[in-house]
Q: What sequence folds into this?
């Protein structure tokens, strides 16, 4: 990966994400950036790793992070309320969706809340973690994992896909990362200015399993019903047999037997 090329492009085109640190191998870019956040590093600092040995996603699920993929985390300090941080996951999903379509003419779907799918297989995942005190956000760390040129493990081939598999040739990872950051920063600045509602229609138009029967495991309970998409506040609306439930976070599984 040509980090010098990324840096030169970032400095010319972006106002937030301008600093990047590259590692051949790390346990986790997410952990690395959280340490920088605790030391008071400024917003926009990015850590990217050629390989992660302990990469993780939501609920600490292991993320296969071999050489050839794009694994990085961004330090953010958004001027929003702590209860709005979950919307950053949705925002990052929209940015990834835009990059795949704009740069590679690839249509994708967003699996609420944090995955991007191509042909029903996962190409990217997102994790957002924060530290806040009362009503003030100290920092947010957004981790993004994208299957670019990495080989998908045999046991994951039925649920995951890489950009290389789709294009039938390797992609320029530095170019992808730069294009994604351009898309994300525009969304990020607009989000802080005018809220998430401006993106809710786009999100719903590209939502996987919309109007399908799904189950949402929140860790405390499982809700099953029809996926109606997100509301203006970014919460997922599920139509159950007796009511409408709004859910802010959880693991979504499609209930194929109920369609």
A:
């Amino acid at each position: 990966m040509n980090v010098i090329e990324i840096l030169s492009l970032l400095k010319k085109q972006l106002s937030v994400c301008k600093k990047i640190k590259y590692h051949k191998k790390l346990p986790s870019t997410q952990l690395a950036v959280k340490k920088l956040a605790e030391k008071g590093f400024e917003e926009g600092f990015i850590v990217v790793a050629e390989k992660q040995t302990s990469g993780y996603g939501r609920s600490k699920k292991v993320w296969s992070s071999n050489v050839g993929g794009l694994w990085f985390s961004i330090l953010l300090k958004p001027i929003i309320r702590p209860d709005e941080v979950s919307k950053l996951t949705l925002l990052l999903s929209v940015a990834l969706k835009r990059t795949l379509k704009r740069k590679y003419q690839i249509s994708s779907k967003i699996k609420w809340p944090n995955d991007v799918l191509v042909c029903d297989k996962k190409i990217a995942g997102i994790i957002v973690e924060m530290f806040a005190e009362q009503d003030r956000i100290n920092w947010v760390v957004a981790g993004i994992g994208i299957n670019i040129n990495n080989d998908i493990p045999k046991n994951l081939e039925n649920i995951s896909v890489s950009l290389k598999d789709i294009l039938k040739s390797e992609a320029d990872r530095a170019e992808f990362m730069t294009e994604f950051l351009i898309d994300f920063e525009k969304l990020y600045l607009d989000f802080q200015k005018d809220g998430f509602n401006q993106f809710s229609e786009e999100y719903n138009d590209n939502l996987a399993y919309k109007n399908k029967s799904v189950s949402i495991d929140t860790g405390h309970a499982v809700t099953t019903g029809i996926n109606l998409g997100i509301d203006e506040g970014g919460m997922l609306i599920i139509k159950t047999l007796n009511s409408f439930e709004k859910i802010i976070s959880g693991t979504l599984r499609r209930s194929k037997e109920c369609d």
In short: The longest strand covers residues 121-133. The radius of gyration is 18 Å. The chain has a mean pLDDT of 90.
